[in-house]
Automatic annotation (TrEMBL):
Residues 90-381 form the Pectinesterase catalytic domain. Belongs to the pectinesterase family. This is Pectinesterase. Acts in the modification of cell walls via demethylesterification of cell wall pectin. Its EC number is 3.1.1.11. The chain crosses the membrane at residues 7-26. GO terms for molecular function: pectinesterase activity.
Amino acid sequence: MATTLKGISLIFISILAALIAARFIVPNSAYPRSPIASKLIPFEIGSCCRRRHHHHHNRHDDKKEKVSICDNFRHDLVPPATNATSVFCVDHNGCCNFTTVQAAVDAVETLSQKRNIIWINQGIYFEKVMVPKTKQNITFQGQGFESTAIVYNDNANSSHGTFYSGSVQVFSNNFIAKNISFMNVAPMPGPGVVGAQAVAMRISGDQAAFWGCGFFGAQDTLHDDRGRHYFKECFIQGSIDFIFGNGKSLYEDCQLMSIANPVQPGQRIINGAITAHGRVSIDEDSGFSFVNCSIGGTGRTWLGRAWRPFSRVVYAFTSMTDIIAPEGWNDLNDPTRDQSIFYGEYKCSGAGANATMRVPYAQILNDTQAASFLNASFINADLWLQPL
């Protein structure tokens, strides 16, 4: 992806500041206007709050043509409906049929056999979105993951459980998302805080694909719950277990960004984990495979920890910075899991890929062992994944 890790690392904070400022802060806000925030909120902070001053106008002024915010809306960007597709246009300024994403989802025909494209104009959509099992074949089409975002702020406490905290929750099959971000802006939890897990996206349907998407949060950002999923050129940010669940998923060319607190040189603390895979038994066909990805950010983190006894995660051709702890993996202090979990690395690079101090149960895979994890056949993509 063209966007650098350094530039992307500011997006979450910038969007959070922009979101708060746009909704709650008066014009003399202390929050800076970053280029990213300007893209997401294409108006000046506080412009909605300024009092209008009444002046005497002459007759000329009264005859001036009124200008609508929708005058410059590019309707030609919205794809036309076809025999095989239905299109639902969403714009928070009211320039489309819908002003919220949830309203567009609700309008999709139940058990529709068409591809239902929900075209979402750039902007921040502060709402909680749920796609039920009966609303299949839906596509969320954003205008860029830096300029289109669905944002909410539930956490495990406020939503009665981590699984229900997702800003977006998808239970239907054949879901696609393109060029859009999913964010949870609940406060980042401090050490020992209970109930602060905050999911940005929960994907629980089968045969889902995410192209050029962003996932922003802290603890438990992406709930890759169950089913076969494909992530291509996505940006995924978090601190603890920020990709978790029991899905069978392939992550290709993705950027994984830790925002755990920086660890000072010489300190031996671990304060982050990228994955927490939840495979319960050897009979379950699930696992996470990361191919041609990059890992960066702050903190000192594990590649994964064993949320369930048969957790399965592989990293291949992935570059890792020195934020990765030398031991690499964690069994959640349950040595009985060491014989059943499958944690593999294959031809990875960077300071964090040094395997000399890896835990004994970590595997440095050979060509034969790695082969089944390296491409889309891992998720049976030939049966369902459509090219972009």
